[in-house]
Design goal:
By secondary structure, the protein is an alpha+beta fold. 16% of the residues lie in helices and 29% in strands. Strands 1-6-2-3-4-5 form a six-stranded antiparallel beta sheet, with no helix packed on it. A five-stranded antiparallel beta sheet has the order 8-7-9-10-11, covered by helices on one side. The longest helix has 12 residues. The chain is globular.
Length: 187
């Protein structure tokens, strides 16, 4: 297991939000048998810039388990290029913050994130266009390729190295023009 410290972080301190970012916890606050220091922050009063509260809600990128720690336990946000491949795969399995519950909402899309060598984990269900955008934004700093498919498994969006490659800017413009004129719809 790699050991991470403050030099591996692009932000440290209390004047920024942790929400939606990969954070490094101090090894000293973790149970001795926990396999890693990297977590994805889903919220909590302590996750806010200059927080009023202390609690931060996290998902372990080693085990996938949700947990709660204190803001003071967080060393900072990990530099995206340092996120190991196994943790990238675990991150790809996290639905966006605020995603609708699958028990009462039908998924409309699947989100997949790929490593440089093409490996990926199972897709995640996304229930709305907003969830698609939120998934892409949370994965974009860390993943090589993100693919969004509709319920029929047709690709509707692809991002490679942080840049949208499908639909193209021209296709997006055509879509927006069609929307204004009541024409074309994007499925």
């Amino acid at each position: 297991m790699s050991m991470f410290n403050q030099e591996d972080c692009d932000q440290t301190g209390y004047d920024f939000s942790l929400k939606g970012k990969v954070v490094v916890l101090s090894k000293s606050v973790l149970p001795h048998d926990h396999p890693g220091q990297l977590f994805f922050c889903t919220g909590g009063n302590g996750a806010n810039p200059n927080p009023m509260g202390r609690s931060v809600f996290l998902v372990s990128l080693s085990t996938g388990e949700p947990c709660r720690f204190y803001r003071s336990d967080v060393l900072g946000t990990l530099k995206p290029e340092l996120l190991p491949e196994d943790e990238k795969l675990q991150l790809s399995q996290i639905r966006p913050i605020g995603a609708l519950p699958l028990e009462s909402h039908e998924p409309q899309y699947s989100g997949y994130s790929f490593l440089q060598d093409g490996r990926y984990a199972a897709g995640v269900w996304l229930c709305s266009p907003q969830e698609v955008l939120d998934y892409v934004e949370m994965q974009k700093p860390y993943q090589h390729r993100i693919l969004i498919c509709d319920r029929d498994d047709f690709a509707v969006m692809e991002v490679v190295n942080g840049q949208m490659v499908f639909p193209t800017p021209e296709q997006m413009e055509e879509f927006h023009q069609g929307q204004k004129g009541g024409g074309m719809e994007m499925q």
